[in-house]
Amino acid sequence: MIVPGFESIEKVLQHMEQLAAQAGDRLKGHSGCFELNLTDGRVYTLLLEDGAVRVTQEKAEKPDCVLESDEKSILQLLSGELSPAKALLLRRVRIHGGMDALRELMKLI
Fold first, then answer.
1. Where are the domains of the chain?
2. Which residue has the higher pLDDT, 8 or 79?
């Protein structure tokens, strides 16, 4: 899990490659395309390919999973302050697409 202290989603995304390297073999053989849509209009795509992660600031052509939320809720999820179940229950996060793809992403963090 990401350590608390990242004050923005940009800081988290800058460290995704490092996080993927730390995850090691847990990500080998896994792939997926994830789109993160923030309520302020920012869009990020995370492409996971056999353990490597690439992040872009654009919409994905065919994402496996799309997460919609505000930045604060995403940071709380990543730091463990907010559980995924509670975030969904309170509608602080919306998910479109496969839950299997989301599980692949959660292995990274």
1. 9-108
2. 8
Report d(CA 83, CA 99) in Å as an integer.
Answer: 16
Residue in 51, 45, 50, 57 with CA at minimum distance from that of residue 17: 51
Among 1, 91, 84, 78, CA closest to 39: 91
- Residue 84 has which token pair? 């995924």
Q: What is the mean pLDDT of the chain?
A: 82
Paired tokens of 19: 């996080």
Architecture of 9-108 per CATH?
2-Layer Sandwich (3.30)
- CA-to-CA distance for 35 and 94, rounded, in angstroms? 12
Residue 1 banded pLDDT, cuts 50, 70, 90:
very low
**Tokens, residue 44:** 């990020």
Question: Strand runs (DSSP E) across the chain, as ranges?
Answer: 31-38, 43-49, 52-56, 65-69, 93-97
